[in-house]
UniProtKB/TrEMBL annotation:
GO terms for molecular function: protein serine/threonine kinase activity. Its EC number is 2.7.11.1. This is Serine/threonine-protein kinase RsbW. It is an enzyme of class 2 (transferase).
């Protein structure tokens, strides 16, 4: 990974709860490689888990697409799926509240029938022991 460059990792998984561990593991690995604290790594894993869980029951074609953009110190994750009839997540739901509490920012946007949930986190300086 070069400084100033944005690296991109793409992943497609079946819209099945058994596969949520895959993007959760990927984001944990990417965050660890980019100097996120252990707490921040756990928060990102849970946030990605929530984003996937929100989209799972609505994924019309049975696929979740995940894009991880790494631009140190930032990590941006987009989880998307084709959804029926302009569906959007309930931003008053417990899942959305958890998601937004764990990351720097979170947003949902639908374009041409594809809903994308985007979460952003920034690594902070780690405290020395």
């Amino acid at each position: 990974m070069s400084m100033g460059r944005v690296d991109e990792v793409r992943l497609s998984i079946p819209a099945d709860g058994a596969y949520i561990a895959v993007p959760r593991s990927v984001v944990g690995n990417l965050a660890a490689r980019n100097d996120f604290t252990l707490d921040a790594i756990d928060d990102l894993r849970i946030a990605v888990d929530e984003a996937c869980a929100l989209l799972l029951p609505e994924a019309a074609d049975g696929v979740l697409d995940c894009v991880f953009l790494i631009e140190p110190p930032k990590l941006l994750v987009r989880v998307s799926a084709i959804v029926p009839n302009g569906w959007t997540p309930d931003t008053d739901s417990f899942g959305w509240t958890v998601l937004t509490a764990l990351v720097e920012s979170a947003a949902a946007e639908t374009i041409d029938g594809r809903l994308t949930i985007t979460v952003t986190a920034t690594a902070t300086a780690t405290e020395s022991l």
